[in-house]
Amino acid sequence: MQFEITETTRESVREWLEHRGGGLNEYVFPSRLSAKAHLSTRQYARLLDQWVQAVGLIPGEYGTHSLRRTKVAMIYKRTGNIRAVQILLGHTKLDSTVRYLGVDVEDALALSEATDL
User: Fold this and answer.
1) Rounded Cα distance, 23 and 32, in Å
2) Are 7 and 17 in contact (CB under 8 A)?
3) Which of 5, 17, 30, 59 is the most exposed place for a label (fewest CB within 10 A)?
4) Going residue by residue through the chain (117 aa), what tens digit of pLDDT does each one get?
């Protein structure tokens, strides 16, 4: 998946790298067990649950995969450009993107009705 890194994100990563220490050839988010290994997906999910809970939300309603989908879903809702979303996700088949976003006939008809020739 291709993505942009905003200036705010860059600054956050810089601050994290300074706080974390270590070299640029090391994992940005190392394992809690060994700095030579990366953060596991299971540990990332645990951290996400803690962060969601800390801001007063319900952990079961948020997940690591839903974070991946959020931006592209917003792009699709705003523009209706499913091809752009396909490219961002790195999908080779448009059908995969359609299923991924949960686009249905009603969405397609609404876009069609909103477009005048």
Assistant:
1) 17
2) no
3) 5
4) 566 788 998 899 889 888 988 777 888 888 888 878 999 989 999 999 999 999 999 888 888 877 778 888 888 889 989 899 999 888 999 888 888 888 776 776 777 777 777
SS3 2: coil
Task: DSSP letter for 5, please.
Answer: -
Distance CA 37, CA 28 (A): 10
| Domain co-membership, 98 together with 75 | yes
Final residue of a domain: which of 57, 78, 94? 57
Are the C-beta atoms of 17 and 26 separated by less than 8 Å? no
Closest CA to 65 of 80, 48, 78: 48
Helix, strand or coil, per DSSP, at residue 61: helix
Q: What residue numbers bound the domain in which 101 lies? A: 64-113
Predicted TM-score (pTM) of the model is 0.57
